Amino acid sequence: MIPSAIHLDAVSLTFRDGSRLFDGLTMNVAAGRCTCLLGPSGCGKSTLLRLISGAADCHLDGRLRFDPDPPASVRCAWMGQDDLLLPWFSLLDNVLLGARLRGTLDRDHTERARELIAEAGLAGYEQALPAALSGGMRQRGALLRTLLEERPIMLMDEPFSALDALTRMRLQNLSCRLTTGATVMLVTHDVMEALRMADRIIVLGGTPVAIKTQLDLAGTPPRRPGDPEIIRHYEPLLEILLSEAP
Amino acid sequence: MIPSAIHLDAVSLTFRDGSRLFDGLTMNVAAGRCTCLLGPSGCGKSTLLRLISGAADCHLDGRLRFDPDPPASVRCAWMGQDDLLLPWFSLLDNVLLGARLRGTLDRDHTERARELIAEAGLAGYEQALPAALSGGMRQRGALLRTLLEERPIMLMDEPFSALDALTRMRLQNLSCRLTTGATVMLVTHDVMEALRMADRIIVLGGTPVAIKTQLDLAGTPPRRPGDPEIIRHYEPLLEILLSEAP
Amino acid sequence: QDREKLTVLLDWFVNPDHAPLFVAQEKGFFSKRGLDVQLIAPSNPNDPPKLVAAGKADLAVSYQHQHQMQVDQGLPLVRVATLIATPLNSLVVLADSGIDDIADLRGKTVGYSVGGFETVLLTVMLQQVGLQLSDVNLVNVNFSLSPSLLSGKVDGVIGAFRNFELNQLDLEGHPGRAFFVEEFGVPAYDELIVVANRDDLDRPELRAFVDALEEGVQYLVNHPDDSWRLFIGEDRGDLDDELNRRAWRDTLPRFALRPGALDRSRYLRFAAFLHEQEIIDGIAPLADWAVELE
Amino acid sequence: MITARRLIIIAAGLIGLWQLVVLATKAPPYILPGPWPVLQAAIANGSTLLHHLQTTGIEMVAGLLVGTLLGTSCALVMIIAPLLRRWLLPVLVISQAVPVFALAPLLVLWLGYGMASKIAMAVLIIFFPVASSFYQGMRRTNRDLLELARIMGARPVNVLRFIVIPAALPAFASGLRVATAVAPIGAVVGEWVGSSAGLGFYMLHANARMQVDVMFAALALLSAVSLVLYFSVDYLLDKLIYWQPTQGVTHE
Amino acid sequence: MITARRLIIIAAGLIGLWQLVVLATKAPPYILPGPWPVLQAAIANGSTLLHHLQTTGIEMVAGLLVGTLLGTSCALVMIIAPLLRRWLLPVLVISQAVPVFALAPLLVLWLGYGMASKIAMAVLIIFFPVASSFYQGMRRTNRDLLELARIMGARPVNVLRFIVIPAALPAFASGLRVATAVAPIGAVVGEWVGSSAGLGFYMLHANARMQVDVMFAALALLSAVSLVLYFSVDYLLDKLIYWQPTQGVTHE
Ligand SMILES: Nc1ncnc2c1ncn2[C@@H]1O[C@H](COP(=O)(O)OP(=O)(O)OP(=O)(O)O)[C@@H](O)[C@H]1O
Ligand SMILES: Nc1ncnc2c1ncn2[C@@H]1O[C@H](COP(=O)(O)OP(=O)(O)OP(=O)(O)O)[C@@H](O)[C@H]1O
Ligand SMILES: [Mg+2]
Ligand SMILES: [Mg+2]
């Protein structure tokens, strides 16, 4: 699996209702690295991920390039802000959705899914329907479904937002392990999370929305909570985020 | 508006599928105070809030008491983990839902809703349908809808989980201001948030789920980020949350 | 064993009008001539001749006026036998309705079921007393003749069969009064006939069928009581009620005793009548649409 | 929206299909005439057809309106009063199982031979899909929304108005589409109750006179009107559910 | 589930209602007989009725099965091939506007006088609600789910199987409920195509001979069978959509 770099050149979007987002946004996402997107609510993070995944329902001006450019059907894995679990499938079946949809489901894959489910603290809930799961459990299901995809580009929209500190840390570690080598784009509102997971942090903001700050971090994610890199960047980053856009 | 204390005596729940939750849980929530619930994902925080709101679809053993006990129709305001915005209503109409459902909508109320929407950073989106809003914008809509209710008991399930740091802080402040005097129960996974907002923090955990720790905080919420009470409790609380249940 | 299959479509549900067919069937008059006759009842009297024309059945029970209209429309059909040799159609009112004469119908409502022919009958009858069709209100009651008359929703109905609806009304305690069409300007005609596809005329089975039918009629008039038992026999027990018994009695004298015989000038006379009333556009040579089988 | 050009293409396609069926099955003209003789018959009887179409059109639209009203009312009653539902639902189901000819005399007895009995019959056929779909749609309202409303101390009528009914609109629309498609047959069947005008009446009449081409001309006219009615309603329904833009499942 | 006791109560209620209508409207017995003479007629013609019921029962079930199959197939075709849909949908709509008597001779011509033509007619009436509702349901599949599947590189057939079809099952169920309710009339109308057995035939027959009580006995039997069929299908459909337990909107 060769990871792809993602290049956005002067991107502007127009939604169906005519409203516009971005105004010539240019962004480069390094191949094989984890890029975390931070930015105020409503600034366009989710839309950006959808755009890259091909799921955005809007008109694109400007250019979106992948380098190298794998076929669309094996390019991305995407975890949206909603869990999008299928209510008629058990947790296990939901986690296995990708393979099932491609018709490539086999015993190994199922075995692996079971292991990951256990690792995510969901052992015993394999056969439960989404309606009988808690919000955080559903989110973990969606995460595992995404991680099992193993694509060159992994897009994750606030994947740990509904998890408690301990579970969150575990799943961050799991995610890092399973996405090593892939180009990861991760949207989060948790500064600590961004600092743990990212090779590069991009902060969006302003009107029109543009890159406010870009920050490259040393060391290999996931960083331990007390990592000096985290301590060094925490306060300044938070300051940037808490500062009002002009 | 006289706030109610909430008493759970030896509560056990049985879901429709026969699975059980809690085993004689006893919990007292002080009247007029803000109680934050922390605990691992899936431990039953949301279910607890639903139980108190009367929305839980399960069998209750044990007792649930309110003191004083206002009529059910004016007892609680509830914000679930999902935003539950009505897709056919604009943001403004969604925020006004309570009054509209009770048939008490008037100009003052609408004016107030508009003000709150602006205060939550959503000015200009009053007429937008939920489908055209970002996740965090929808969550703010749901929060405002709840805050406008002004009930003796305010139940909020991870109300800020989809918000960036700045917006989150603003809405925490807004919430504190608008719920002063009410009994607030707030579920969160963010330790800092709990320390800012709570008069009392209850940590759930273990099997069967029980109260692991209970912590009373001095001072009036919302505390400022550098507040000594926060600094004092942050590390120990995080430790408890990160410690494996036996 | 290898008897010739012959599918015969009735015009309507099984009723005493079909007695000769069933007597012939039960007495084995068909089978002894090497015929295996299957009788099928439709619910729309228009369809059977069409299906014979399309080759989906061998014979159909039809009405003379319907037959002539279909021939006029180019259907390759030929009358090969007659089942009932007099008109049955009549205009019926309730006896206590105060309508003693057709002239009393002025301004009243008259129900009918079959557009075209029945309205023509009514027109001609009204003409006898100096009225026009526009002097009455016409309503298509779609075969719901007696109920609409009984419930007072119409004052008269055209298309009522004298052997049937009159008895029906009587049994409900409201006797009717019939005005017979042939007594009010309509030339006499055959009510029920049997038609075949023109291409089949040389099939010997058809003549055999007519012969069996004739034998059936003869048995019927000679042994009416036994025939009744044959008619309601076996799986037609539900036909055994007062109405059918009366209808049976009233139908007996109306069967064609020589089913195969054709009164040519009577057919041409009726064709002229239909033509005059603009029911048919032209009059084809008789041999094209009505024959006596050799 | 369907443009005039597309309409013409579709009409041409349908007529071609018809001709194809005639040719392929070799159906004789007195059972299934081809488009050409039917067109001639239509032209020859144009004004009569249009005259009868008027009657049937009124019946169709009136039947659709009254049927929709009755259907939604039934659905609402069943939602509001679950106890009543137990009694109403069987009656509704039976109402669908009763054939016309059994009811016709009753309707005429109660309503006479005027428009009323025909519309009643059309309504009987039209209302059920609406009632059933709308009821099922309302019954599937998100439970959490209902709980939210209850906690808010909502008045039941407002829960219906602002939550349950909008949530069931897609289901209602689906039922109304079925109802619209059967509206023409509802009107035609209504005319069998006893009538002196309308396309159904005229078809029976032509059928009895063996004017098969005239009957098919009436049929073609009825079909055209049904299509117009159906696609108009379809368009309006898509507008009505403004928050759920329709799109294909596959990418066109 | 409906218990035997509840069934009896409902039956008694319906019969009471019937008697009430008779008394209230003073309908004469030759138009609407009361329950009592009808019961007598039912007993007197018991074996005949049951004999005809068999035929109609087979037609109903076969019509429902084939109709559901055809309906789902049509819906699937319209979902899979939007281009084809443009042509298919008008044909389906027209198929609902064509009255029986126009089609009957055609069906007999093509399918003969046997069961086939009757079932075909029943299917024609039954399939549309299924096709329409199922299609609408599939068209409303959550867009995000479809995008997710596309991103996953799903095979289209699997998207249908695992996402689109399950998502449309509630809508399908709603359509199938309507179809089940009209299945009896479908079978009855099918028998008008030309038959010598079946409750529809028997009713027409009894009607033509003014045996109104016998006709209503057949009607009552047909109604009872429809109710059983409807509530069986209703029950099965509730089971089929296992992830969406039904509940009342109001609190019973
Ligand atoms: N309807 C249900 N049927 C069966 N089990 C249920 C049902 N709803 C919830 N549960 C179970 O109850 C437990 C608690 O769920 P709950 O949603 O209250 O958790 P939570 O503490 O809010 O978790 P999270 O932080 O992930 O939101 C979970 O284990 C869940 O599986
Ligand atoms: N379908 C749409 N039509 C119109 N506007 C839209 C649509 N989808 C999103 N938007 C607008 O685009 C902007 C960005 O939305 P997006 O969901 O990308 O934000 P976000 O950065 O993910 O925010 P959050 O942190 O709250 O999830 C918002 O202002 C939103 O109103
Ligand atoms: Mg987002
Ligand atoms: Mg929860």
Automatic annotation (TrEMBL), chains A, B:
SMART domains: AAA. Keywords: ATP-binding, Nucleotide-binding, Transport. The keyword ATP-binding applies. The keyword 4Fe-4S does not apply. Pfam families: ABC_tran. Residues 6-231 form the ABC transporter domain. GO terms for molecular function: ATP binding; ATP hydrolysis activity. This is Putative hydroxymethylpyrimidine transport system ATP-binding protein. The lineage of its organism: Bacteria, Pseudomonadati, Thermodesulfobacteriota, Desulfobulbia, Desulfobulbales.
Automatic annotation (TrEMBL), chains D, E:
It is found in: Cell membrane. Keywords: Cell membrane, Membrane, Transmembrane, Transmembrane helix, Transport. This is Putative hydroxymethylpyrimidine transport system permease protein. The chain crosses the membrane at residues 60-84, 91-113, 119-138, 159-176, 182-202, 214-233. GO terms for cellular component: plasma membrane. InterPro entries: MetI-like, MetI-like_sf. Residues 49-237 form the ABC transmembrane type-1 domain. Belongs to the binding-protein-dependent transport system permease family. It is a multi-pass membrane protein. SUPFAM superfamilies: MetI-like (SSF161098). It comes from Desulfofustis glycolicus DSM 9705.
